[in-house]
Amino acid sequence: MKRSKSKSPCKLWMIPLAVLMLVMQGCATTKPPSVDPLAYKNRAKSSVNEDVTVTVAVPTNSEAWAIYGVDLASKNIQPVWLEVRNQSADTYWFLRSGLDPDYFSPSEAAFAFRKDSDEAYRKINEHFRNLEFKNPVRPGSTEAGFALVNLDEGVKAIDIDLVSREKVKSFSFIIPDPDFKADYKLVDYETLYDIGDIIKIEDEKELRRVLEELPCCTTNADGDKYGDFLNLVIVGEPDDIVPALVRRNWHLTEVMWSRAILRSIKSFLQGERYRYAPISPLHVYGRPQDVGWQKARGSVNERNHMRFWLSPIRFRGKRVFVGQISRDIGVKFTFKSPTLATHVIDPDVDEARRYFVEDLAYSQALAGIGYVKGVGVVSKEAPRMNLGGDPIYTDGLRAVLFLEPRPYSISEIEQLEWESPLAHPGRWK
């Protein structure tokens, strides 16, 4: 008996997804949004180094469209505005490569939006050049303008280097994007806990004991099923943590909304990288993660991602965040997710933990590290299943990372004599 020809199940579900993408893309506006093109200056940040002041701001995608007259974000281009006030006797030059080694020249960016006629291109090119920051900054003068760099959503790390014949002045900024729908914006950290719930700790031994008593794992929303292991703890303030992560190319995650769902579906179908893809909710303290971070790799299939919850613990006045990290190594189709796909994680979750420790060692914010007991040994031969049905195993420890504002070299990082991963080989048995 001959089988009738039919399309594979994969192609059948890809067709409606492709149609959905075309419909949603067709609804996207092609007109510049109605926004104040100067609103970005209200969010400007300044820094002073002796007799030179640098002020920076990053327009939102909508503001950039209003300023330049074209949708720069559609070409992965982002303008950074800077103003340099030079009250010294030296002439300074702004080094664009320090901001982004792959920056765009005005003509290059304008060429991406060229029209049919040479005259139209000449006009847009001239407009882009008029907006450009002009070197040099002479003594007693102020220069302001834009540099065009690669697009970063969520948070932008900005490094400004100014050089004269004899001096170099460096300035660093972390600029959040007010339009980015990050999950952390849904949380009021100041009201998560009552004053009476705060656990104040000064002694390291007491901290170790309390951290070992934390829950072993994340759970589902009902709290009756265990998920991924809680294998990270960060001690530090957001002003210490965020710059360290941003400078190591970690990205915030978007909430699950229409644009994020569309981008997730598109990246899933086309195998593209989506650096801000939503991550599924896991629960600790009876609530989903307060903030998610991820470091995407070459495609949507691969990324490191982690979730953090603010705990009620305060160590020597600093906040303590408990978290979970794992490495995504593939994707699988599922109707359980609004994006119609979910990730498959590397079963060796200790590898992701180890990667994060090494990564933060290069952030120059890691002052100390220790390990405490967590879920306990889970062997490779008898792994547990997380909520996504993936097997996971571990030596049972959680890494405790202490972050500080001043720079720390790798040789300065303190190694606390608590638990040691090398002393827990049970997962390999």
Provide an overview of this structure:
This protein is of the alpha+beta class. Helices cover 22% and strands 31% of the residues. It folds into two domains: 39-176, Immunoglobulin-like (Sandwich); 183-428, no CATH class. It contains nine helices and 23 strands. Strand 16 and strand 17 form a beta hairpin. Helix 1 (9-26) packs across helix 8. The chain starts with 8 loop residues before the first helix and ends in a 14-residue tail after the last strand. The model is unreliable at 1-28 (pLDDT under 50).
Briefly note the structural class of the backbone: alpha+beta
Q: What is the helix tally? A: 9
Distance between the termini: 51 Å
Q: Give the rounded overall mean pLDDT.
A: 87
Outline type: globular
Number of strands: 23
Largest sheet: number of strands, sense, barrel closure? 10 strands, mixed
Q: Any idea what the radius of gyration is?
A: 25 Å
Helix fraction, binned, reads: 10-25%
Beta-strand residue percentage:
25-35%
When the domains are counted, the total is 2
Low-confidence stretches: 1-28
Which helices and strands, and how do they pair?
Elements: H1 9-26, E1 45-49, E2 52-57, H2 61-68, E3 77-86, E4 93-94, H3 96-99, H4 106-111, H5 118-131, E5 142-150, E6 155-163, E7 168-176, E8 199-201, H6 204-212, E9 217-219, E10 226-229, E11 232-235, H7 238-247, E12 251-252, H8 258-270, E13 283-284, E14 287-288, E15 291-296, E16 303-315, E17 318-333, E18 341-345, H9 349-361, E19 366-373, E20 384-385, E21 391-392, E22 397-403, E23 414-415
